[in-house]
């Protein structure tokens, strides 16, 4: 993708995991061919920023040597799988994720529309329900495995051996039953329009899933770490990889396998109550060509003030334009950059009708207490 600071190259590691060799190699490539900054994304991908025109070729060659690239861009787009980071070596998560990736790369695989994705959420309990996916393989309340169409309240029972086959059949059903129109289509919208799932998709109720974002800290597989705006420097990535393999999460955090305490490195968000965890800001102007105003400078000023004007756990989203790439979901408070300043949306998305418009940085930073009022 072309951006204001050069090309942005998306890397989609298999199984949502970077080995130490891959992470250190990726960090070297980000310095050699990009500007040394990497973004963690809400699809659990990692992006190399500021890639030069001349650096694109060597970067892709380097990624191929690390096993971090698909044979074609189309194959990479079809392998749209988010994997729970809470897997262990004795569960089926990585096996299912790898089998699903192979099935999507097969010559007879269904060709799914852009943004259509899969989740492999078969850890102890589902954690990805709030993350965008159209076909979900997840853990049921009685410990069984389920295949579920996004938007449905019941699912089909599967086993580790049949889960991927069921997901492929459901994908074929989606295409056959008219889920795609004009090259686009999502499962929940298809069901909302009245599509009726095959009979077996009423077999099992779905287990309630945690919907709030996890906090940094110790988890069973290691340590979960956050980063301001989900961005880290190449040297941080490299230093973290010296501690263990890295699992990417859709919460723009990294799970460092095997660690029992956060490493002492600059740029990490390690406190569960750090307000930086509640602030989302996309790249904005000038580094994104669509950005109407800067985003992160404003977000940095508002972050320490957050506890004074937003309820606990409420999210502030500063978006560089109405597209809202960094946080497509509603947020308690959204500031959307426009040509004349920032629009204020409460409880909505960046493109929603604003309560107030054209607010300046000076006003916003001097009057934060006025931003989250109901009248
Ligand atoms: S929301 Fe707009 S400004 Fe922000 S990254 Fe997306 S396109 Fe760029």
Summarize the structure.
The protein is an alpha+beta fold and 375 residues long.
Oligomer type: single chain
Residues in helix, %: 10-25%
Cross-sheet strand order for the largest sheet: 6-7-8-9-10-11
Unreliable stretches, pLDDT < 50, 5 or more residues?
none
Q: How many strands appear in the DSSP assignment?
A: 21
Shape verdict: globular
Sheet/helix structural class: alpha+beta
End-to-end Cα distance, whole Å, is 41 Å
Largest sheet: 6 strands, mixed
Query: Beta fraction of the residues?
Result: 15-25%
Number of domains: 3
Instruction: Count helical runs.
Output: 10
- Distinct ligands, ions and cofactors found in the model: iron/sulfur cluster
Rounded to an integer in angstroms, the radius of gyration calculated over CA atoms is 21 Å
**What is the residue-averaged pLDDT?**
95
What this model shows, in words?
The protein is α+β, with helices and mostly antiparallel strands and 375 residues long. The protein has 3 domains: 2-70 and 221-257, Sulfite Reductase Hemoprotein,Domain 2 (Sulfite Reductase Hemoprotein, domain 2, Alpha-Beta Complex), CATH 3.90.480.10; 86-205, no CATH class; 275-370, Sulfite Reductase Hemoprotein, domain 1 (2-Layer Sandwich), CATH 3.30.413.10. Helix content is 23%, strand content 23%. The protein contains 10 helices and 21 strands. It has helices at 20-33, 56-65, 73-78, 93-105, 163-176, 187-192, 234-241, 296-302, 306-309, 361-366; strands at residues 2-3, 6-11, 17-18, 37-40, 46-51, 81-83, 118-121, 135-139, 145-149, 154-158, 204-205, 217-219, 222-225, 231-233, 246-248, 254-257, 279-281, 316-319, 331-338, 341-348, 356-359. A 6-stranded mixed beta sheet has the order 6-7-8-9-10-11, covered by helices on one side. β6, α4 (93-105) and β7 (118-121) form a beta-alpha-beta unit. The longest helix is centred in the first third of the chain and has 14 residues, at 20-33. It is globular and about 60 Å long. The chain starts with a strand and ends in a 9-residue tail after the last helix. It binds iron/sulfur cluster.
């Amino acid at each position: 993708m072309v951006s204001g600071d050069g090309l942005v190259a998306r890397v989609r590691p298999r199984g949502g995991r970077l080995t130490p060799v891959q992470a250190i190699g990726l960090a070297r490539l980000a310095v050699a061919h990009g500007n040394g900054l990497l973004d963690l994304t809400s699809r659990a991908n990692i992006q190399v920023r500021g890639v030069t025109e001349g650096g694109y070729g060597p970067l892709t060659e380097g990624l191929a040597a690390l096993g971090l690239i698909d044979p074609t861009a189309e194959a990479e787009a079809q392998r749209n799988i988010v994997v729970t980071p809470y897997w262990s070596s004795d569960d089926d998560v990585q096996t299912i994720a790898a089998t699903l990736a192979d099935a999507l790369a097969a010559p007879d695989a269904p060709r799914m529309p852009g943004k259509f994705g899969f989740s492999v959420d078969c850890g102890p309990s589902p954690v990805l329900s709030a993350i965008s996916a159209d076909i979900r393989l997840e853990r049921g309340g009685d410990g069984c495995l389920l295949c579920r169409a996004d938007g449905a309240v019941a699912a089909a029972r599967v086993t580790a051996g049949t889960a991927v086959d069921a997901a492929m059949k459901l994908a074929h059903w989606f295409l056959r039953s008219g889920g795609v129109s004009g090259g686009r289509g999502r499962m929940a919208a298809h069901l909302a329009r009245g599509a009726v799932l095959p009979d077996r998709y009423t077999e099992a109720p779905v287990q309630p899933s945690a919907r709030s974002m996890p906090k940094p800290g110790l988890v069973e597989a290691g340590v979960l770490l956050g980063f301001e705006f989900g961005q880290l420097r190449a040297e941080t990535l490299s230093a973290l990889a010296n501690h263990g393999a890295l699992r990417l999460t859709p919460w723009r955090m990294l799970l460092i396998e095997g660690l029992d305490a956060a490493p002492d490195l600059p740029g990490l968000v390690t406190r569960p109550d750090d307000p930086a965890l509640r602030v989302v800001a996309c790249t904005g102007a000038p580094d994104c060509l669509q950005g109407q105003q800067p985003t992160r400078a404003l977000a940095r000023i508002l972050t320490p003030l957050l506890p004074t004007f937003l309820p606990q756990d409420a999210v502030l989203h500063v978006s560089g334009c109405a597209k809202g790439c960094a946080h497509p979901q509603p947020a308690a408070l959204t500031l959307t950059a426009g040509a004349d300043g920032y629009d204020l949306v409460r409880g909505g998305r960046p493109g929603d009708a604003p309560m107030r418009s054209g607010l300046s940085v000076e006003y916003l930073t001097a009057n934060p207490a006025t931003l989250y009022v109901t009248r």
